[in-house]
Amino acid sequence: MAHFTCEVVYRGIFQKNLAARICRGIVLSARKAGRWGIAFGRYGDSPQRNGIPAKDFAIVADTQEELEQNMARYEPKEVDVTICVDDTLGKGVESWAWYGLQPINRLTVPNGTLLITSLQSADELLKDIHKKDAPYNMALIRAKASFSGLWVYKEDHTEARILGALAKIQPTFLSLDAVCQAVKEAEWGSDLKVQSARKAYERLERRSVTITEGNPETPYAFEKPKWWEMREGVSIPAIPVGKPMEGGKGYVPERNPYFKKFTTRTMRPVIDFDKCVKCTLCWIQCPDSCFDVTPDGLYDANMEACCGCGVCEAVCPVKDCITMVSEAAFEDNASQWEMWRQDKPKYLTWMGDKINSKSHVVRSHGFRFRGQYEEEIKQDLEQGGVAITAGIPGENAEAKTL
Ligand code: SF4
Ligand code: SF4
Question: Comparing C-alpha atoms, which of 132, 105, 139 is closest to residue 208?
Fold first, then answer.
């Protein structure tokens, strides 16, 4: 008797459909290989929010009894494969009903595999991914994070490529033939997607990761209140008034001390303080009260509170004053204004490196402005990408009278 468990760690809303397709594809492939399988979501009973990390799971077992045994758990305590469909989640995962930051490889079993879609190298990714006290393997699919919305789907074959890669990682449970058959028959499948699955199988990059490799930082955590510390009834304390900064010349709003929103972020704003005209719009419009008012009347986005929504970039009236840049380009959450104040020429070089690098700015949530999705697809084609197949519900839908 044997079983195989995997989790798909994804960005809520943007990748909800992608994660569901991957997990259902695993189950379908398992059935084609004569095994049993089930797919389920960690947040099946709660709404999702844009970018908040979320998880889906798939379990494959040799027998129905063994599958039922595994289904009895609320969520798996460990998984053979962690699939991460956005490499900025390598910095850690914080979500509803979790407490503090979970390393992306936390549930991966010793000698299990962390499968990531990324354009970064394994060494670059390991600067963010926390160290683990057991060796594991990293598998890389060369791809940009596939983002869309709740009602649209980006047909860039990511689901087929992940399934092809899984056939290489777990050949005992998912043979390549079974995966190809499942991809061909799924309502979102096609012959072209079968080719993509095969290519991912052939091209998968793999390496082992030792216990000495990875980000040595201790993940952010906090003490949960004890039952005797809880107040009567259900009450949520209001956020207190903020504090003055530098003798009242500036102002720091109070923020939720427990929920650090930076794991929600796939991009962050980079601010050119020399261009700022102090119009206050970013400060007023930021949905997360991220901006500190500095003593010189500028606005400094606090990177522990920023969820990366891009509203500040959208409302700033000055051209190129705020630029959203891929979260993968940053190693800490330090204040940009402090950096600018201490050494302006150095800040200019740092800022230029971030906003002029194509790999840092070519990323999006797909919703920052009207027509952005079309622009992105055009850019992909110009950079040598392949044309995507027809959208929802997929090439096979007509034949299946869907
Ligand atoms: S991206 Fe800008 S508007 Fe959005 S949370 Fe961050 S600082 Fe606020
Ligand atoms: S919106 Fe732009 S110009 Fe206005 S205060 Fe913010 S950074 Fe400065």
Answer: 139
Position 390 scores a pLDDT of 44
pLDDT exceeds cutoff 70 at 119: yes
Q: Is the CB of residue 189 below 6 angstroms from any atom belonging to ligand 1?
A: no
Residue type, 107: L
d(CA 73, CA 90): 26
pLDDT tens digits for range 268-291: 999 999 999 999 999 999 988 899
Between CA 358 and CA 323 the distance in angstroms is 12
Task: Report CA torsion sign: 207, 211, 214, 220.
Answer: positive
Is the peptide bond preceding residue 393 cis, with omega within 30 degrees of 0?
yes
Distances (CA, A) of 256 to 237, 241, 261: 10, 12, 9
The predicted structure's pLDDT at residue 45: 45
**Beta carbons of 114 and 208 less than 8 angstroms apart:** no
How many angstroms separate the alpha carbon of residue 366 from the centre of ligand 2? 23
H-state helical runs in 210-286: 281-285
pTM of the model: 0.87
Q: How far is the CA of 293 from the centre of ligand 1 (A)?
A: 14
Ligand 1 atom with the smallest distance to the CA of 311 is 3
Mean pLDDT of 369-383: 70
**In angstroms, what is the span from residue 167 Cα to ligand 2's centroid?**
50
